[in-house]
Amino acid sequence: MKKLNVGIVGLGTVGGGTYTVLTRNAEEISRRIGVDVNVALVADKDLDRANELTNGKTTVTDDAFALVSSPDVDVVVELIGGYTIAKDVVLKAIENGKHVVTANKALIALHGNEIFAAATKAGVMVAYEAAVAGGIPIIKALREGLTANRHQWVAGILNGTTNYILTEMRDKGLAYQDVIGEAQRLGYAEADPTFDVEGIDAAHKLVIMSAIAFGMPLKFDEAYTEGITQIAQTDIQYAQTLGYSMKLLGITKRTDKGVELRVHPTLIPADQLVASVDGAMNAVAVQSDAVGPTLYYGAGAGAEPTASAVVADLVDVARLMGADESERPAALGYQVDQVQDIAVLPIEVVESAYYLRANATDQSAASADIEKVMAEYKIAIKQIVQKSASDLVILTDVTVEKNMDAAIAALEALPTITGKLVKLRMEALG
Questions:
Q1: Is residue 31 in a domain?
Q2: Quick one: which of 79, 93, 203, 363 has the fewest CB in 10 Å?
Q3: How confident is the model at residue 301 (pLDDT cuts 50, 70, 90)?
Q4: Does the active-site annotation cover 140?
Q5: Which CATH number fits the domain that encloses residue 51?
Q6: Which of 87, 98, 205, 247 is an active site residue?
Q7: 115 Cβ contact partners less than 8 Å away, ≥ 6 residues apart
């Protein structure tokens, strides 16, 4: 039986899970692909941890660059994370003619264009299924399973930490600050949760899916990102009474003017399947012209769920490494010369429906004033609801963001409105 020698760089949560799955299920994997996938070498700065995990069965080093230069390694699995040392390791592996598998969404989102160009020049593969939504095979679905389709939009819950926090705020009536500490204690949130709660992690993943869905370069710097730290428990409860669920969504849409690329808290109808995805789980919805809507659900993080996707990539590499380059799936799903530099729309020109909450001194007078202002800016009101002695909630029809912002500025100047309005976007996803 042929042998595929693998080198794993980084034996943290995902690296350790990958080593465990590969060694535990080695026989099952080889039965499926006719190749013996052998972990020949692992690299980690913590040699004690690496030796404990491998138990003397695999050669261990603390030098990642020695691993990527080793003639005993055919495929480098990069599981360090980040985009400094990891980038150097991946580019050096490619330079050495080795195929690469990575779970590193930040690396691909920020430097994928450079990495894929280097891999094309070197004639090697870079596989990254685990970089988006953990164990959910969304990359393969977009790039291969749905290849007959013209995709219209992709939207999803792409970060388990924020989904857990919003679920707890809704179910337990807690404020954000009360939940984040518990999320850290349970291991759902890092000691510094900024990448998660500010939407950056979700944006990394969305940028990758957008590039595959629409055949465009990776454009992380142009993604609009808004997190959940300012979300009030009041608005979660009000939304629920009105038939909506609040989720931090990543949304990318193809329009006649360009591509939307945005991450922000979003109200979606409670009867949508995505609305029922709670806790730390992930889900991605795809709308395509031929198949229509499809939904992908599962664990978006964790040692073995993510390892499942890493090993699936290794299996693909094992099957395709002897194939002609034309027989391998393109990194972004489109032939290199067919990737188009499509414009990313600024958030100001994106169209959405809106939820607004205003504090009114005189609700009857304020309602009349609100209707006048909205009419002036040609924004249709679907509903005005009195939610407390002072809170008015306004649900609007779809309008352009810059018009909504101008209307909000006019509303905040009214004598019947006090303080700043709360603005949340609403999506039907249907």
A1: yes
A2: 363
A3: confident
A4: no
A5: 3.40.50.720
A6: 205
A7: 87, 90, 91, 94, 107, 108, 126
